[in-house]
Amino acid sequence: MASKPRLFSLEFPERPAPALADAVVVLGIAGLLYVGVHFARISPRVVPGATISLDPAVLPWYTMLSVGRMAAAYGLSLLFSLTYGYAVARRRSAERVLIPLLDVLQSVPILSFLPVVLLGLSAFLPQRLAANVAAIVLIFTSQAWNLTFSFYQSLTTIPQELREASAILRFDGWTKLKTMELPFAAIGLIWNSMMSWAGGWFFLMAAESFTIGARDFRLPGLGSYLAEAARRGDLTAIAAGLAALVLTIVLLDQLAWRPLLAWADKFKVEAVEGDEPARSWFYNIVSASRIVALMRRLWRPFSDWIDGWARRRTQVRPPQATTGLSRRSLPGIVAALAAAIALGYLAVRAVGLLAGLPAVEWAAVGLGLLATAARVAIALMLAVAWTVPAAVAIGATRQRAAAWQPIVQVVASIPATALFPVILLVLLRATGGLNFAAILLMLMGTQWYLLFNAIAGVAATPQDLKDTTSMLRLGRLDRWRSFLLPALFPFLVTGAIAASGGAWNASIVAEYVTFGSQTYSAVGVGAVISQATASGNYPLLLAATLALVATVVLVNRLVWRRLYRLAEDRYRMD
């Protein structure tokens, strides 16, 4: 049998000898421990609010702190996404409320609620701890939503034959989740995890360098380094920070995402094996290591205990006849009443706060909402126009996907807010000024949701469908109309929802920009929210946020919910 081609032309065999793999694993662990101890010893003492150093020597330590916050936020995001997506997909009644709520949460600009989070946490936590928790929460809000939409989309488009097989085998809820639902969703979740990290890098500058009035909540990290460099207009420091960011992204690609894609390739739903399975040199080393195999054996008893506990919790119990209110329903009713009372109280207070808002400011909110909606629509159309063909071209072969994957991650993860000062210097003198620059920044921050989801759709397309299309010798137009677009449609809907929400969220940094000693603003609801936050005008902040939420709910009902139904009913791979 012919040997498979290697990923690199280096001395990494596809499956190295166990002794070599063990040596690499041990050296890797020792290296990580040494790096952690070394930087912990030489790290500068930095307290919240202290001046952020632009000395390149602090970049390794700042990068480690930022990666730690990103990892904590990603863990929370993944847990939230699996729980929330599963609940929405299982209950149609809950779906009517939870999907619009999710769209609202991903669209509400972070400045609308971060002051409340920060000030609330600092009331009973030390300021440093409060700032770290708030930063993790902020990064969570840029990571969780597209993961949740991806998992929900996967659960609602599982092929009917897989559902029937699980019913015939009488899988309980845990077995179904572990052996069918999570494997089917794996490829989409991994690609959206890359996008979540890219989104986290995008908002890292805001998360680590936040100030409210006279209170300074800045934290040491790569985001605050880039923010301080942008504030001073120090292009050399911006270049150094971006270099550290690019190196971090490349390492994550080689040591995390590419091995995960190689592992998840076995979960593709297809009748024949793909010609070019995904490969990863690091995955080959880890899978051949006897140390890793020993760790798996040691983990197995605990894993079996988790499986047994979860199966007992998810067993279907026969319904029991009840009369009147059961004891279990009483706490739910009490909680619902308490929530209704709290919401009613908050609504009354909100109405009182909004009653004194002048008509001029209401007009500014309305005009800003229309302007931002137009920018969001333009950015979304531009993103669709180039990301879909690009995703199909990138995913056409494994070699091309492997070559472009780290490049796409690097470009997607570079915070557009770090490059925006340079873009402003060019575009402010051009026709359109900040109005055009705001669309460009929205596009730079949101187009990747569409691209990553489209690439995931290409990667998840069964090989037998590709072979059938080739045998039919369809023309380019027929191939797009009858194969590519239907296969990618569920993934494009997920990407478009995340991109739309990201564009609304990015309006706060796209329409109100500070560079050096100058502040530039454009007409838009994002600028209204930013100005209201800076001036402490909380009635205006509340009015602008509520108007944005109402608009997002309306778009969800008229557009996204119908597209999700279409994807579930007509474009499931049955």
Topology, element by element:
Blueprint: H1 18-42, H2 59-90, H3 92-107, H4 114-124, H5 127-156, H6 160-168, H7 173-202, H8 204-208, E1 211-212, E2 215-216, H9 222-232, H10 235-264, H11 281-288, H12 290-314, H13 329-355, H14 359-394, H15 398-413, H16 416-427, H17 434-460, H18 463-472, H19 476-510, E3 512-515, E4 518-521, H20 525-535, H21 538-570
Antiparallel strand pairs: 1-2, 3-4
Helix pairs in contact: 1-11, 2-3, 2-5, 3-5, 3-19, 3-21, 4-5, 5-7, 5-19, 7-10, 7-15, 7-17, 9-10, 9-16, 10-11, 10-15, 14-17, 14-19, 14-20, 14-21, 16-17, 17-19, 19-20, 19-21, 20-21
Low-confidence blocks of residues: 1-13, 43-48, 318-325
* Biggest β-sheet: strands ordered side by side in the sheet: 1-2
User: From the coordinates shown, what is the CATH architecture of the largest domain?
Assistant: Orthogonal Bundle
Number of domains: 2
Which strand-content bin applies to the residues?
under 5%
> Secondary-structure element order, as H and E?
HHHHHHHHEEHHHHHHHHHHHEEHH
Tell me how many strands there are. 4
Terminal CA distance reads: 34 Å
Largest sheet properties:
2 strands, antiparallel
- Global morphology: globular
